[in-house]
Please model this.
Amino acid sequence: MEFLFPFASAFFLCFATILVVNPIAIKIGLLDLPNDRKCHDGAIPLIGGIGIFFSVLMASSIFLEHSQTLNLYLISSALILFLGVLDDRYDLSVKIRLVSQVIVASILIFGAGFYLTSLGNILYFFEFKLGVVGIIVTVLAVIGSINAFNMVDGIDGLAGMLSLVTFTTLSFLFYRADSPWFLLPLLFNAAILAYLFFNLRWPFSSVNKIFMGDAGSMLIGLTVVWLLVLGTQASALPNNLDMVNIQVFSPVTALYLIAIPLMDMAAIMYRRVRKGFSPFKPDRDHLHHIFERAGYTRKQTLVRITALSALLAVMGLVGEVYYVPEWIMFVGFILLFLGYNWALAHVWKIITWLKRN
Model:
């Protein structure tokens, strides 16, 4: 019952919120219109993030233990949702988005009292402690996670499915450590499933299609990084008075839980900079675009990328559960990323070779 009632509540609350907000979004113009980068039919309401947020907000007030940390998380998530809605409606500049994300990151660091103080034993010989530099690293981590999930939201269901993989593994790890935070990713899973019902129009194709929007993808990215910091670090500042936090999993495990969004963002930004473009300049060189240009349908692309993400997350879980040395897991991830980046840089040669053989 500790799973069923919260899960069902978040699912139906998200479902109901989407039905209520949908006509309002159409009236105020909160719509995604097709253009040279966005190939879809008609104007699609950008309300998935709103539905997810309000369902989690209401369900968490009922089922989650109230604390200063939870309240600050809800405040920061409301701010990032508001930023995302404004971006969906008015297409904000990169500078405004980045400044807002830094402000939101400061709530986690200086409000809740958590930031990355250690990266664990990734260097084999000693623990990689960050000290006060961890504040800057945490700000970069928050910006990175928000934009990673925002950038990966390129085809129907992809950001939702990848976040399901991440939230499922996070819920398992927190539950395994007997931490009450296991319920937050569980609530997100329920709300995201309700959103996917409309976004993928499955199992009923008659429902009105909606998109997550920047509000939804940035909300997910923020929530993921909050949970990763809470899971990998003890409270770093003395103002965290309402809960005792223990390390739930190692920092290197976190890399595997968000591997696809993280690697895709890093590889894309690296290639953009090499070409002399802004790292935030939109393009059609993401992993899902490459799958499509290689001849896969969007559903085939969705299944394959989700399966790859799940495989990497399971690798991280196995390393955590069976106490694989952190430096081995870190070297393994670096090799994965280098292989991923090389494969994307040579993807057409690889596809041509496969077709010939």
Residues 175 and 182 are 5 Å apart (CA to CA).
